[in-house]
């Protein structure tokens, strides 16, 4: 939970100072990176959750709906959803089942693979994800809390880290503009 007012010192800078004072100099920068990114994730997720709350969506449910909404026909095989969201199949299946239950997605048999399922966005799901996207664009994405230059630099840095970790093989650190 965020503090109601700013702290008088940066607790992550203090943590790094403590790491250095305890002789963990080789790990101090890495600790500062990890805890800084994790704190930034908490802050951003809080804003995203607040924007999605009126729509009854978690970010996982939103991501699945948005992915289907971006597809040409509003349908994708479950295996493609798992690969693109980079989440375990069990998590995607659970999220999809809740969206099916709520009438935002339907499951259909795969046209060429009897063992596979297709996830299909319903009209209600498309309406919901479009409304939720408008809210996220207005409340979070238009102003993520940093300048456009800092945002581009951060995206590039994180993309290089993700690529080194094996997240993707594309040689470009970020997609070309559409």
Task: Write structural notes for this entry.
The chain is mostly helical and 178 residues long. It has two domains: 9-55; 56-134, Orthogonal Bundle (Arc Repressor Mutant, subunit A), CATH 1.10.10.10. It is built from seven helices and three strands. It has a three-stranded antiparallel β-sheet with strand order 1-3-2. Helix 3 (59-70) packs across helix 5. The longest helix is centred in the N-terminal third of the chain and has 28 residues, at 25-52. The radius of gyration is 20 Å and the shape is globular. The mean pLDDT is 92.
Strand order of the largest sheet: 1-3-2
CATH architecture of the largest domain: Orthogonal Bundle
* Continuous helix count: 7
- The low-pLDDT segments are none
Strand content: 5-15%
Which superfamily, in CATH terms, is the homologous superfamily of the largest domain?
Answer: Winged helix-like DNA-binding domain superfamily/Winged helix DNA-binding domain
Report the structural category.
Answer: mainly alpha
Instruction: Give helix and strand order, one letter per element, not per position.
Output: HHHEHHEEHH
Shape: globular
How many domains comprise the coordinates?
2
Look up the CATH topology of the largest domain: Arc Repressor Mutant, subunit A
- CA radius of gyration: 20 Å
Instruction: Please give the share of residues in helix.
Output: 55-70%
Number of strands: 3
Mean pLDDT: 92
Pfam families: MarR_2 (PF12802)
Keywords: DNA-binding, Transcription, Transcription regulation
Organism: Microbacterium istanbulense
Protein name: MarR family transcriptional regulator
């Amino acid at each position: 939970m965020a503090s109601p007012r700013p702290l008088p010192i940066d607790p992550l800078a203090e943590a790094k100072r403590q790491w250095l004072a305890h002789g963990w100099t080789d790990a101090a920068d890495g600790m500062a990176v990890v805890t800084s990114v994790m704190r930034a994730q908490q802050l951003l997720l809080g804003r995203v959750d607040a924007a999605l709350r009126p729509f009854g969506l978690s970010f996982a449910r939103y991501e699945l709906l948005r992915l289907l909404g971006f597809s040409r026909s509003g349908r994708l095989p479950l295996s493609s959803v798992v690969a693109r969201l980079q989440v375990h199949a069990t998590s995607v299946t659970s999220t999809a089942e809740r969206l099916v239950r709520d009438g935002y997605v339907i499951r259909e048999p795969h046209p060429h693979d009897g063992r596979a399922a297709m996830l299909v966005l319903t009209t209600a799901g498309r309406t919901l994800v479009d409304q939720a996207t408008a809210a996220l664009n207005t409340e979070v994405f238009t102003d993520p809390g940093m300048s456009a230059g800092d945002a581009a630099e951060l995206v590039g840095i994180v993309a290089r880290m993700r690529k080194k970790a094996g997240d993707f093989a594309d040689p470009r650190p970020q997609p070309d503009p559409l």
